[in-house]
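Example record

One chain of 269 residues, shown exactly as stored in the release files.
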Amino acid sequence: MCGERTHEEIAVPEPVAVSGRRERLRRQTLQELKAASLAEVREQGAVGLSLRSVARRMGMSPAGLYRYVDSREHLLTWLIADGYHDLADHLLAALGMPGDHGMPGDHVGDGGHLEVPMRTVPDDDVADRLRAVALAYRGWAVAHPNEFGLLFGDPIPGYEAPPDGPTVEAMNRVGQALAQPLIEAWQQGRLRAHPALDAPELVEPLAPMAQVGGPLPTGVFARFLLSWGRLHGQVSLEVFGHHRWLLPDGCELLLRADVEVTLTDLGVL
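Predicted structure tokens for this chain:
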């Protein structure tokens, strides 16, 4: 009839609009929470992080903050997992591989392994990919010193990451991204044999852990640990200021030189 409207004509997707608006506000608040928490870590250290101080920095009541995190331990777990995910995404991007992990707090998993796609690349590309992932590791650390310190600094008294929780899942992604070009080099038969890295007393204890990106020979896993240790050591010295007196403009050239030595030792060059 004239002047009447059917149910379909008057239906308005208001719940969807409200949901979308709420999600945007939630994401904005989570970003503010992350920024405020990292600012507290920078000024007070992870030991001094508290929900009350973060809430005060955000202009929010502590009770309001509990809508997003249950406890200080929950907040630390979230920050650490998000840091690992962000680092992993940065490394995967340097390798030309997808790795968007989404918003902070979106990754609450069971800690299972996330498979990194195994792919073979031309022989003359593996060295470049190893260089790319090493420089990306340094680049992220230098640009995110607070997050790097939270992930790799001194243990936080009284805090223990949940076993097989989101921090483990996120850390595995970092290991898989770092190992990916080394796995490709192994697939192509380009890793140099070395008795010290294949000694039973070294590789046998590593066997349960040699699952980065899929089952690996323990000797290859030992090479990964050694290469990451060298890379991480150089980056840590820079981020924590130990080379500042000697190289005030940064340590990229020093790292590049060390990467070339590592590639030679691995047999890739």
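Notes: Confidence is low (pLDDT under 50) at residues 1-18, 103-123.
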